[in-house]
Specification:
With 128 residues, the chain is mainly alpha-helical. The longest helix has 18 residues.
Length: 128
């Protein structure tokens, strides 16, 4: 198959609901053909029930944790960010999940992060 005949939509998939459906489909296929299907299909059934009852898509939120899936939110992956992703109630049922960035959040910033690009003051340099 030539590269120009390959469907371009397969190369550039950014739609979060589509990614969640694709992950669900792949897990169903694995559960169909694997020997330990109960370990795959029971959690998928639970995810489906939560989606239908609460309109809360767990797979979509898991995929939101991947940095390329959240270009509007530059926060680094931390326990607090993961908790905010999973505790945020769905607001718009017709739009993909999105979480507003915290005030002053920057990529890779955190309480314990170190800026390696900042110059070191003269008094803090180690003497040999």
């Amino acid at each position: 198959m030539r590269a120009d005949s390959f469907p371009r939509w397969l190369l550039h998939i950014e739609d979060l609901p589509f990614q969640a459906r694709l992950a669900f489909f792949v897990l169903v296929l694995l559960g169909t053909f694997m020997a330990l299907r109960i370990l795959i299909l029971v959690p998928l059934l639970a995810i489906s029930v939560v989606e239908l009852v609460k309109r809360y898509n767990v797979l979509e939120r898991l995929l939101y944790l991947v940095p390329p899936n959240r270009p509007e939110n530059p926060e680094s992956l931390s326990l607090e960010f993961v908790m905010r992703v999973f505790t945020e109630m769905p607001k718009h049922l017709d739009r993909p999940f999105a979480l507003k960035a915290k005030a002053g959040a920057q990529s890779g910033s955190g309480a314990d992060s170190f800026d390696f690009t900042a110059p070191v003051p003269k008094g803090d340099r180690r003497k040999r």
